[in-house]
Each structure stands twice: as structure tokens, then as C-alpha cells.
């Protein structure tokens, strides 16, 4: 996304830069003079209650700081299906959308499908010692670069409320994607099989 916005002056910030969307620290300073804010802040949790609390507070802090800085457009990346399945982490993403919609900021929400990297992210979050868990789901994964290009195009245009959803046409099994990732990367335990007993990586 930063590459796609190259002619523009782009600054990416997170907690490692001293900017914390949850406490609000550093938001005012980093938004000063900005035309557009793109909210990609997130923290994963399986708890619906915690996901709602995190995303509500962060969306309130970011939208309020953006309003005070006179930002002309706030772009938020969400996930396809958060309203059809408002549980666990998705409960927080739906809450985030609702806080932004009620905030009055000039807004575009883009819902994208899961990234190709999602299988590795889930494995990372669910691996317990030698055991990795797979999840049954049909997703239409999209390249993160494509999401970045779409976000850049939206950011340079006017606020549109909700943008058209972004997904690839090819449905994939998340469980199968996770198995393929685990087989290709020995740092992950093979899902539902002992780490030591399964072949891992290329032949
Ligand atoms: N992954 C997917 O398949 C997918 C699909 C569709 C949409 N999305 C959305 O895309 C966005 C990015 O997701 P991702 O998977 O790329 O997540 P990620 O890799 O976990 O990145 C999240 C970023 O947020 C920062 N962050 C977390 N808490 C923060 C806080 N309180 N203040 C400031 N920065 C904070 C983290 O950096 P620090 O740790 O340095 O703070 C990190 O750079 C999210 O909104 C997610 O819902 C993801």
C-alpha cells in the first residue's frame, strides 16, 4: 500500500513508533497535517468481549483524533462476513465498523476477504506445542498487495461510505491452506498430527 501511494508522503505508525490506538498516545501528533488516515490497527483475540472492547476503544480514539486534526478522509479495512458471523475476532471488527459509521468522520470502509497469509497467521495463533489446529471455512483469499493497491486507490479518492467488497473468485478451504502452509514451513506443527511423525517441507 505504501508503494502504491508512493508519490504521496506516507507515514506508517504503530506502537513500535510510540503510537498506540488503544491508549490514544501519539495519535494527535501523527495525524497533524494529514489528509488521509488509513486504519489497519488490530489485535487478534478469540474473545468476542475483548475484541469488541479493543476495536471500540481504538476506533473511538482514531476517529476523534482524525476529526480534531481535520483529516479529509478516514479509510478502514474490515473483513467480508463480519455481520453474518459476528463472533470472536469478527465481533470486534463489526464493532469497529459501527463506531466509525456513528462517528461522523468522512469515511470509507473496505471489506476484504482473508489474505493468502491468513493460513499462516491462524496456525501461528492456534499452535500449542506440537499440535496445530485447523479450521473449516470456505474463503476467497486475496493477495495482500491487491488489498494495498485498492486501499491506495480509495485513499486518493473521495469518501464513499462502503466500498465494493474485495475477494478473488476462487473459493479455497482454509483447513487445506493451513495444511499446505504447515507442510511447506517446518516452523509450524503439522495440523492435528505430531510434529515429529509428519514429513515437513519440500522433498
Ligand atoms: N489478515 C487477514 O487475512 C485480513 C483480511 C481482511 C482484513 N484484515 C484487516 O487488515 C488489518 C491488518 O491486519 P493484519 O492481519 O495485517 O494484522 P497484523 O499483521 O496483526 O498487523 C496489525 C498492526 O496493528 C499494529 N497495532 C496493533 N495494536 C495497535 C495499537 N494499539 N496501536 C497502534 N498499532 C497497533 C501492529 O503493530 P505494533 O505491534 O507495532 O503496534 C501491526 O502493525 C486489520 O484491520 C484486519 O482486520 C486482515
Which features does this protein show?
disordered C terminus; 6 helices; four-stranded parallel sheet; 203 residues; Rossmann fold; binds NADP nicotinamide-adenine-dinucleotide phosphate; globular; two-stranded antiparallel sheet; single chain; alpha/beta
How many β-strand stretches? 6
Global geometry: globular
Order of strands across the biggest sheet? 1-2-3-5
* CA(first)-CA(last) distance: 35 Å
What hetero molecules are in the model? NADP nicotinamide-adenine-dinucleotide phosphate
Oligomer: single chain
Integer average pLDDT: 91
In CATH terms, the superfamily of the domain at 15-113 and 140-168 is NAD(P)-binding Rossmann-like Domain
Radius of gyration: 18 Å
| Major sheet description | 4 strands, parallel
Please state the structural category. alpha/beta
Number of helices: 6
Helix share, percent: 25-40%
The percentage of residues in β strands lies in: 5-15%
CATH topology grouping of the domain at 15-113 and 140-168: Rossmann fold
- The succession of helices and strands, N to C, reads HEHEHEHEHEEH
> What CATH architecture label of the domain at 15-113 and 140-168 applies?
3-Layer(aba) Sandwich
- The CATH class label of the domain at 15-113 and 140-168 is Alpha Beta
Low-confidence parts, pLDDT < 50 over ≥5 residues? 193-203
What this model shows, in words?
The structure is a single chain. The chain is α/β, with parallel strands linked by helices and about 200 residues long. The chain has a domain at about 15-115 and about 140-170: NAD(P)-binding Rossmann-like Domain (Rossmann fold, 3-Layer(aba) Sandwich). It has six helices and six strands; from the N terminus they run αβαβαβαβαββα. The protein has a four-stranded parallel beta sheet with strand order 1-2-3-5, sandwiched between helices. Strands 4-6 form a two-stranded antiparallel ribbon. Strand 2, helix 3 and strand 3 (about 105-110) form a beta-alpha-beta unit. The protein binds NADP nicotinamide-adenine-dinucleotide phosphate. NADP nicotinamide-adenine-dinucleotide phosphate binds next to strand 2 and helix 4.
